[in-house]
From TrEMBL:
Keywords: Acyltransferase, Transferase
The keyword DNA damage is annotated on this UniProt entry: no
Classification via PANTHER family: AMINOALKYLPHOSPHONATE N-ACETYLTRANSFERASE-RELATED-RELATED
Domain N-acetyltransferase: 71-161
UniProt keyword annotation of rRNA-binding present: no
Protein name: N-acetyltransferase
Source organism of this protein record: Catellatospora bangladeshensis
Superkingdom, natural source: Bacteria
Alphabetized Pfam families for the sequence: Acetyltransf_1
UniProt-recorded Gene Ontology molecular function terms: acyltransferase activity, transferring groups other than amino-acyl groups
Length: 190
């Protein structure tokens, strides 16, 4: 019997978070992003960035959570990190290029990453990650949140809209090796 739960990321999770991020990008975004870009991403570099995010977040309101699936087999319990969520206060990364960079958005949170490794999908891990993240946002007195999604990423958009998120009308395009990849921003109130 499998049990899923969410906990704060620990420094020793950084390598697994990086592996999950790369695996998920290479599967879910293989038709959105140039293959050579996905192939060239250095997993060790990502792991070090995640370790820094866990050990020394920019503020106490920046958090990294992991989803864990726990299985019991023949009297042994095994745990697998299967997904993660990273979030913090609304900042420059949550803005579109033409937005007012001086507006006060101190009560708005932003998801920077919310990924579940595809082979562990459809088991409630994404919902648990999002629910735990929202609980922490409420503790931190955020009143709303935003998240960017690739325009062509129907799965992420469907997941977020099914939990009450909606597009806010803001769009941008990421320049990935001279390929513009459109994104739309979704928002919710807490």
């Amino acid at each position: 019997m499998a049990v899923g739960f969410v906990r704060p990321a620990r420094p020793d999770d950084a390598g697994e978070i990086a592996r999950i991020q790369l695996t998920t990008w290479r599967v879910a975004y293989r038709r959105l992003l140039p293959r050579h870009i996905l192939d060239e991403i250095d997993e060790a570099f990502l792991a070090e960035r995640w370790r820094e995010a866990v050990v020394a977040p920019p503020t106490p309101r920046h958090r990294v959570l992991v989803a864990v699936e726990q299985t019991a087999a023949e009297q042994a319990v095994q745990e697998y990190v299967v997904g993660f969520a990273a979030s913090g206060p609304f900042d420059e990364g949550a803005l579109a290029p033409d937005e007012d960079h001086t507006a006060d958005r101190g009560d708005v949170a932003a998801i920077t990453d919310l990924l579940v490794e595809p082979r562990w999908g459809r088991r409630g891990h994404g919902s648990r990650l999002l629910a735990a993240t929202v609980d922490l946002w409420r503790e931190d007195a955020f009143t709303g949140a935003v998240c960017w999604a690739f325009d062509a990423d129907a799965a992420t958009r469907k997941f977020l809209t099914s939990t009450g998120w909606a597009p806010d009308g803001t769009t941008r395009a990421l320049d990935v090796d001279d390929l513009l990849v459109p994104q739309l921003r979704l928002h919710t109130t807490l």
